[in-house]
Amino acid sequence: MNxxxxxLEQLNETHSKTLNAILSLGxxxxxxxxxxxxxxxxxxxSALQEGLEQIQSLGQVSSLEEFMQRQQGLxxxxxxxxxxxxxxxxxxxxxxxxxYSRWLDRQLAGLxxxxxxxxxxxKRAAARKPAAQKAAA
Length: 137
Fold this sequence. Notes:
Helices cover 78% and strands 0% of the residues. By secondary structure, it is mainly α. The longest helix has 55 residues. The chain starts with a helix and ends with a helix. The model has no long low-confidence stretch (mean pLDDT 82).
């Protein structure tokens, strides 16, 4: 790399690659957040809808025993639903981790070693005589 234009071309190429990598990472992150937000929105919507249905069904009970049985059944259903949602979230996060790993692999594969930079040879100090040789001299 002897000419300034070569250096500028390499700088421009590196800048372009870096910008593209940042943009693709941003897009990947946006997609992941969008999927997770959609899942959370569906969960919240479902919880509100089911909560209203549960309140209505509990209002129709005739005894405390029936109320407790329905409440226990509703809690069991809710627990199962939340566990299923947690599994879906974990699956989404595992998928995102795979996506990030593939992204990183692509970025690392695109790297190339930099051209060697010519560096001046280090200056060597004059050899010093040991103290015994100095005294003899």
